[in-house]
Write a structure and sequence with these properties.
mainly beta, Rossmann fold, Porin, 2 domains, eight-stranded antiparallel beta barrel, six-stranded mixed β-sheet, 17 strands, 48% strand
Length: 370
């Protein structure tokens, strides 16, 4: 039975000295202890052998031997049956460790036990790298850490104070400099907006409503104000039948006509809100052009065609939905009135009129161009 003790000579020994190891053994293990001392010497330790009978309390024995010999660690190998248990006390951490070996695997006892003793010492010293590592009554020397192949312990750094937050210098204006005037910044509006769609146009007075193409083109003079042109082109004519000379007799000759109405206007539109949903209101002046082609209805009557125009005004409320920037879906209504209603006459007698007032509703697609 044997014990190994690692010494620094004394607790206050010079850090440049090799760490010493004392091998404790009884009389039966003296020869093995001497061979282990030689092996530990090749590993960088200064080993000594002390003969001391083993106690029942091995941990207490190791502690007493380490203190008595000013050792930093104590190791004992205890044989029991086919196993061999290796004990080690490390004074740098204050911990006692043990490891069980098979007798068969420890052939060449001196070399094997020396290596296992250093492994236990290294495992204990590695804990010194932890932030909350246990501490014993002695400090490990650099030579001890080097012999046990343990990285040097980094010194603890004092907590550093946080750097002050950078401050931006405040602008200083000369006393004589005038204060800047407050200005309102608008998003740059598009220059041009164009729209095209379809609608229905009608007017009370005897002519049916008709489908039409609705178009508009304008330019922005402010973020929400647009000035432009507005037009309605008929997609179908309005068919009309009526008696000649205003006769009410069902057998009286009848006149027929096909009439088309177009509108050309200039207006101003104001958008009331910004955002995805944009209500607006517009208004302007319009010229309504009515073209009629008569159909010969009876002998003695001729078919004639004519085109007339009338000036008027209109208002155009609307609502737009902008799913993506600069592209809108619009729904608009128009209410207009002409200064002079447009008449359709059969044989000099008024058969229908259009334009006092007139209405339109449309759905269109509007694109705003930069």
């Amino acid at each position: 039975m044997l014990v190994l003790v690692s010494l620094t000579g004394t607790v206050t020994a010079n850090a440049s000295e090799r760490p010493r190891i004392v091998v404790l053994t009884d009389a039966k293990g003296a020869a093995l202890a001497e061979r282990m001392r030689a092996e530990l010497g090749t590993m960088g330790f200064d080993a000594d052998v002390i003969t001391d009978p083993a106690d029942d309390d091995i941990a207490a024995e190791l502690r007493d031997v380490a203190l008595r010999e000013d050792a930093i660690a104590a190791v004992r190998a205890v044989a029991k049956g086919e196993t061999l248990r290796l004990w080690l006390l490390d004074r740098s951490t204050g911990k006692t460790l043990s490891r069980e070996l098979e007798q068969a695997s420890s052939g060449g006892h001196d070399r094997t036990l020396a290596i296992r003793a250093v492994e236990l010492l290294r495992a204990s010293l590695l804990e010194l790298q932890l932030p909350d590592a246990p501490r014993g009554d002695v400090e490990p020397t650099p030579k001890l850490l080097d012999a046990a192949q343990v990285p040097a312990i980094a010194p603890e750094k004092p907590p550093s104070e946080p750097a002050p937050a950078p401050t931006s210098p405040k602008p200083v204006m000369p006393d004589s400099a005038p204060l800047p005037e407050a200005t309102q910044v608008f998003r740059n509006p598009p220059l041009v907006a164009a729209e095209i769609g379809a609608g229905v146009v009608g007017s009370p007075g005897g002519l049916p409503p008709f489908a039409a193409l609705v178009a508009s083109l304008g330019g922005y003079v402010a973020p929400r104000i647009r000035i432009g042109a507005f037009g309605i082109a008929p997609l179908q004519s309005m068919h009309h039948e009526g008696t000649l000379n205003g006769e009410t007799n069902s057998n009286a000759p009848k006149g027929e006509s096909e009439t088309k109405v177009g509108v050309v206007g200039a207006d101003v539109r104001v958008e009331l809100l910004d955002g995805m949903w944009r209500p607006s209101v517009g208004g302007g002046v319009a010229i309504v052009i009515l073209a009629t082609e008569g159909v010969e209805a009876a002998p003695g009557y001729l078919s004639e065609s004519g085109t007339i125009a009338s000036m008027g005004a209109y208002v155009r409320p609307g609502f737009a939905f902008e799913p993506v920037p600069q592209l809108r879906l619009r729904a608009d209504g128009v209410v207009g009135a002409q200064l002079r209603p447009l008449l359709v006459e059969y044989a000099g007698t008024e058969a229908a009129r259009w334009g006092a007032p007139w209405f339109a509703g449309s759905l269109s697609l509007e694109a705003r161009l930069p």
